[in-house]
Amino acid sequence: MRPTKSMHGQWSSNWAFILAATGAAVGLGNIWKFPYITGEHGGGAFVIVYLLCIAVIGIPIMMAEVMLGRRGRQNPVASLQTIAAEENKSGLWRLLGWSGVLAGFLILSYYSVIAGQAMAYIPRTFGGMFNGVTADGAHSLYQSLTADPERLLAWHTVFMVGTMVLVARGVKSGLERSVQFLMPALFLILLLLVAYASNTGEHFTRAIHFLFNPDFSKLTGKSVLVAMGHAFFSLSLGMGAIMIYGSYLPKDTSILKVSVAISIADTLVALLAGLAIFPLVFANGLEIGVGPGLIFETLPIAFGHMDGGAFFGGMFFLLLVLAAWSSAISLIEPAVTWVVENKGVSRVYASVTLGVITWLLGVLTIFSFNIGSEWKLFDKTFFDLLGYVTANIMLPLGGLFIAIFSGWVMHQHATREELGIKYNFMYQLWRFLVRWVTPVAVIIVFLNAVGLIDNIKDWLHY
Ligand code: TRP
Predict the structure, then answer these.
(1) What is the model's pTM?
(2) Phi and psi angles of residue 186, each rounded to the nearest 5 degrees, phi first
(3) Nearest-CA residue for atom 12 of ligand 1
């Protein structure tokens, strides 16, 4: 039997769910990752593929996850198992829940290290360390942080402890209220940064050109995979986080509306971050593909030169860390609920245990910035490899199976009833997207990334 309510409680309103899910979606992915991978993958064309993935894969999968969560009302593993049983399908579908729990935990291990770096920048900026800083200066200040495993470890520890305290208290209490002020504040500070960047005149124009003027010759199979992986990452899809949040959702909420709203908000934040950062890159003659250090090497230049920069900069990094926290809790929530529901332990015990394991794994990411930067597999450091495997392989695979589950395994009656979409046309569109578009797109992008499609073309002399 399906429970009608989650044993962990329910959101107080639709608005509370939107805030929490937006909190989960908006985080380092939008502000730290989107700009740097856009830089690495040549801009415009990459951005278009990303936006396309959000629209035709992201939104339908988000709807599917919310729907599955609300129908199952338990942790992702149990929800999938219950729904599969109801449809007389194999209990093996719970493995999909498992892979999600694993992905969330792996992502959190490095997410926390990066959030720790952002945290290190709060006292640095408030303290005026970047006043009048040059591009070279900002670069070497970032290097000095990442070269020091002890400092990274200290901040990683602070971030993980904070995350586990929040999770232990329960995702719903406090989160609703804090996200309510956090998101608008982050938005305002990003607008301020974009306004500052727009003063760079031609460099601003160049940034717009870079972001929105596609040059498809720069697009490789790998970049398409990264763009798709990032659509999943940024919307927090493919591992059950949104499913868990959906399991606390009241029965009458319009899943279509909330999913569209969350996706739009998430995308706007990423685009604003790009508009704030790339003008600085051009104005200061920086290299566009520097990688994960991009925001840490560019934004301090802006804060170091604008009026009140120490204050706004400090606030920016503070808000970024808070946004990262509201995302981090969603990464570990599926695992925590699973442990609580299955091992009969308390939420606090589950949080602490999982937190310690995640923290330990994070140490390897810390090392890949310094003493372990030469430890490579497939030419990637531990951090690069973990980021690649989780975002570009695990999440899209999770999404693929979520699509198959909700489009093929579940009966039409069930999805139609649970989604409760008013217009038949919209429901049919959703069903078409999850049945055909998502599975086919994910498979083609995978094949394309490993070069198989080129091989087939060669083979056909095409
Ligand atoms: N979306 C968040 C960000 O952009 C990160 C995140 C939170 C996430 N929960 C997730 C990514 C679940 C993948 C899956 O920062």
Answers:
(1) 0.94
(2) -65, -40
(3) 236
